[in-house]
Amino acid sequence: MSKAGTGSGTVTSNPAGVDCGTDCTEANVSGTSVTLTATPVAGSTFAGWSGSCTGTGSCVVSMTVARSVTATFDTTGRSGPFTLTVVTAGTGTVRSTPAGINCPGDCNESYASGTSVTLTARAPVGRPSPAGPAPAPETARVWC
After folding, report:
1. Residue 125 has pLDDT above 90, yes or no
2. Positive or negative, the Cα torsion across 97, 103, 106, 111?
3. What are residue 14's DSSP bridge partners?
4. Given Cys at both, which of 15, 20, 41, 52 links 24, Cβ 3.0 to 4.6 Å?
5. What is the pTM of this model?
């Protein structure tokens, strides 16, 4: 078992034994069916198997002879950090959770790849809506 490509990830086996990250070789009893599973880390994708397996699903090999399998991981090109920019029209505020955006004023923030950001927009205090009382805050969730 080996890994290739520009990305990163781990390969595990069933039955247990391979945990490639650290242990990429395992002796198995002849005739044992071994299933290998590739898991990319954030910012990487699993591109596929080569050698004794092909494709992008789980790799199943029958250990009737020595086998050689390579898992290829590629970078997604999106490893962050990413800048989230809020553009407002009219008056009111937009704030983020986690903190970073407090617009108007601070309408840009960088977040790590995979961060879930909740934006909360509020109408100005004391400014009723033409349709009635001031509306409740609006929220939106984005992932960076």
Report:
1. no
2. positive
3. 35
4. 20
5. 0.53
